[in-house]
Specification:
The complex is a heterodimer. Chain A is mainly beta. Chain A contains no helices and 11 strands. Helix content of chain A is 0%, strand content 56%. The termini of chain A are far apart. Chain B is globular. The mean pLDDT of chain B is 92. The chains are: A mainly beta, B mainly beta.
Amino acid sequence: DADVTQTPRNRITKTGKRIMLECSQTKGHDRMYWYRQDPGLGLRLIYYSFDVKDINKGEISDGYSVSRQAQAKFSLSLESAIPNQTALYFCATSLGGLEDNEQFFGPGTRLTVL
Amino acid sequence: AQTVTQSQPEMSVQEAETVTLSCTYDTSESDYYLFWYKQPPSRQMILVIRQEAYKQQNATENRFSVNFQKAAKSFSLKISDSQLGDAAMYFCAYRSANDRDSNYQLIWGAGTKLIIKP
């Protein structure tokens, strides 16, 4: 079974719709992240969370919100989707502490906003 | 701010040959981590190899090795005996060892598409 799962894997929606992308992990990691991948730009950090009560904005948080429902669950919401939010979205986790030098990624969600 | 540059949008290599992917980075820090991630068509992001900046010895993982040149801020990936399964996008990434200043984020290059010719 995958350690980091994302749902849905693919989603097509229309401008103005509210969208939620979900991430679950069974690795027992405290830290979770949401990234966005655009062609030619690598990955960019949207939000990150160190525990249920600790959520922080990343490089490109505008237009997005997150919810850390439990240690294992971290959701990303687009309140009113727009076409330039069309991208591949990745959730990642890491252990934290002195050993926090590797992030583990989910399979990604491809979102298309028409 | 730190930046990571991968100057080769695409590389191709004959199966069983050796290929080197380039990565340079810019930072004023002395302690950091560098990573190579592989992204095959399945989209999964897979860690290939990791280097700690304080270690002078180049990291190796089976057929994958790095040439870490700290003074030149260069971190290239060498793939020996290339296999068809190595075909993927390869991303170089940087992370500060100073968590408080870095916001714990990875800084990513734009990626290099590696094509393996049978």
